Amino acid sequence: MVRKFMQSEAAPGLALMACAAVGLVLANSSVAPGWHAVLHDPMPWTPIARLHSLHEWINDGLMALFFFVVGLEIKREILIGELSEPKRRRLPVIAAIAGMAMPAAIFVAVTQGHNDLLRGWAIPAATDIAFAMGVLALLGPRVPRSIRMFLLTVAIVDDLGAVAVIALFFTASLDMLWLGGACAVFAAMAAMNRVALGHRALYALLGGALWFAVLHSGIHATVAGVLAAFTIPLALDRNGDSMLLRFEHALVPVVGFAIVPLFGLTNAGVSLGYGGWSSFGQALPLGIALGLFFGKQLGIGLAVLACERLGVAPRPEGAGFGHIWGMALLCGIGFTMSLFIAALAFPAQPDLASEAKLGVLAGSLLSALCGGLVLRFAPRPAALKPD
To answer: Does a structural domain hold residue 64?
Structure first.
């Protein structure tokens, strides 16, 4: 039973949900002050001076591996996957861009007049792959396979956009010496890829050096994970192995069952007492929740229908309107990436960070429930009539 659960598509999403629930319980129990101290108080000793607390080690250290796996998935999809052919990537790329722009626009509209909140514009623009795919997996054969692949592809493009946002908009100041060192390491890894030299251990060692240099450069350290992934060769070596696929195969379970659930456990905690719920009507959590719930379904759903109507690209094969709508709703599950961007947007404002978490949790939960219900009652693929 354990083996079957670990191999199911729903398992990483369910593990993330369970750990996030535990994090909420801890944040609203009598142990909340102690739990906060464990996460945020300076550690007695740390091997890297810039990482003072356990929370920083998780968000800046372990999450770099999460972004490394995201980078591997993006590269694989671009080279041999759903994004490898123009006609196949046209619709998901357009849908992903619209699905990021509409939530951001709704957030800006809701928070208009609150200039201190505008840094959070990217929070509702993200999609959580594990959570969304977990909900889809629970629905079984009711959902066409084309919808699963489409959602996965949209989420991957969404992740690429989120990485670009983190690199471009959440860099306060640059240390040019460390940035130069990071560029030198990245160039060395790219050259190794170009001439097909290097062992996995060497790539791992240089990847660690790249992360260390980026951490001290002023750019968020997790960007190093994506950059390192782009240098990992996908082509088969003389032994018939692909280094990229081997890295991905080894790290996906670690990320899915350890790192991402740990991130959910330590970042989803927000007080839901009277003071917590009363803040939901504030502009920040409301803008995030509305952006995730309405922005995603409007942006992605309307983009798919417009592309089909204008002849730009057909809808996913075998998918009815209910499947498109339900999938667009599930893309409103921001969770992991949204919580991550929220922490970057308000690093020195814990009250605003808590409000942002509340908006992420509310918008993601509503999107998951409504998306699951829409797909649950949509016609089965076999029952769909041809257009």
So the answer is: no
